[in-house]
Amino acid sequence: MRGFFITGTDTDTGKTWFMLKFGEFLLKHRCKFHFLKPVESGCWNNHPSSLDGKKILFPKDAMLFSTLESVPLNTICKYMFKAYASPPRSAEMENKSIELEEILDFIETNKNKDRNCYNLVEGCGGFYSPIANNKLTSDLAIELNLPVILVVKNVLGCINHTLLSIQAIKTSGLNIKFIILNNINEETALDNYNELCQFTNIPIVRLGFNQELDSTLLNHIN
What we know:
two-stranded parallel ribbon; 8 helices; six-stranded parallel sheet
């Protein structure tokens, strides 16, 4: 499978936002891609499409992917949980369980097999965040063995989180393709780009608040 595994230094680093911008970037440059977000927690349960007043879960992130890519939601996401918590904990709260093998089966079934297509697989939270029973996001990444894109929230403390994540990913035998330094707020009190560049030779790509990815990213994705 060709593509990338997208993880973050923590929860809420803007992985989904980056993936949407990455998808728009690939569309602009006429590159094929397919989103895969097999698990989403924190789903809404009052989507307008509810039938007969019955509330249904609505994976807002995966739905954005589905809309941008113009493919059915069930080819992107399978496991949807209401609680905003790790997938295994969210599943337990609903008297369910989730196994890594099930996630891998879903990805295998729904991946785009075109050798010219980038499959963009989003993990849960950070690299060591739980994703299934007794399994971490790192376990999924190792099984897929895809190049990693690490999304970093550009705030105070991100250098420590980034360097720890880099070490963890490399220890797992995986290659980090590039780092996204993501400005999640309109005003960034402390820009860590120059200082972070001093501690790693991995390419770092800036993603400004509500901005597009620069065309120079093409140099890093092949």
